[in-house]
Design a protein that fits this description.
heterodimer; A: alpha+beta; 5-stranded antiparallel beta sheet; elongated; B: alpha+beta; 5-stranded mixed beta sheet
């Protein structure tokens, strides 16, 4: 379509200019996307989570996983923590050294040090061997690490004041 | 009494059970446990409160929970 207009000496220069700008923009966009495609191709093999079919089945599987993770988390909370979690979707953990941390239902910087006011971020590795672990499982893992190896938690954590 | 290995994953978790008196069952679960340890997963023996971080499989444990490796977010 572009060619006949360009060949035609009577073509409106404004139209030609618009088409040229459009073609340039498309070229730039394609060039910019290329590295991303290359990165996707270089990704490690997909984990088993990726084997779940797309669409409704995947959403159903995710919802079932979240429910299962929530039940497991609740099983490992004491009565007070469970009641607070049911009410506020967060709970407080006290470490052997007597420090208190609030673990919230958000994916990052969700551990709040009550004494120092710092938000800590410790997550579970997500790669081909472990992918798509529900948030409630992450909260349980954070609780266990704080209770059983707080120094390791503090060594790993990123901090936000 | 149940003996369960719970591995946190995209399903919420996967459970493996074993009878400590049955060698084949113990060895199958031990093999899975050791494979996870080689991939830097972290294991807790939660048979009693407050629990304990472990590196070796414990056939007598009633609940072992395994999480993927922790990383700073």
């Amino acid at each position: 379509m572009l060619l006949p207009i360009v060949r035609d000496q009577r073509a409106d220069p404004a139209i030609v200019a618009v088409l040229m700008i459009g073609a340039s923009a498309a070229f730039v966009a394609l060039t910019a996307c290329a590295p991303r495609e290359a990165r996707r191709a270089a990704d490690p093999p997909l984990g088993t989570f990726e084997a779940i079919p797309p669409g409704e089945d995947r959403r159903t599987a995710r919802a079932a996983a979240q429910l299962r993770a929530r039940e497991l988390l609740r099983e490992h909370l004491d009565d007070e923590q469970r009641a607070e979690y049911d009410r506020r979707r967060s709970f407080v953990v006290e470490t052997p050294r007597g420090r208190r941390y609030r673990i919230k239902s958000t994916s990052s910087y969700n551990v709040h040090g009550e004494a120092d006011g710092i938000d800590y971020c410790v997550q579970l590795r997500s790669d081909a061997t472990a992918r798509g672990v529900p948030l409630e499982d992450q909260m349980l893992a954070q609780k266990l690490l704080l209770e059983l190896d707080e120094p390791r938690f503090l060594r790993i954590a990123n901090r936000r004041a | 009494m149940q003996h369960l290995l719970k591995i946190l994953d995209h399903r919420g978790h996967t459970e493996l059970s074993w009878n400590p008196e049955t060698v084949d069952e113990v060895e199958a679960v031990r093999e899975r446990f050791e494979a996870l340890m080689r991939q830097n997963f972290v294991a807790y023996d939660l048979s009693s409160t407050p629990g304990e971080m472990i590196r070796e499989f414990r056939p007598q444990a009633t609940e072992i929970l395994v999480t993927p490796e922790y990383v700073g977010g």
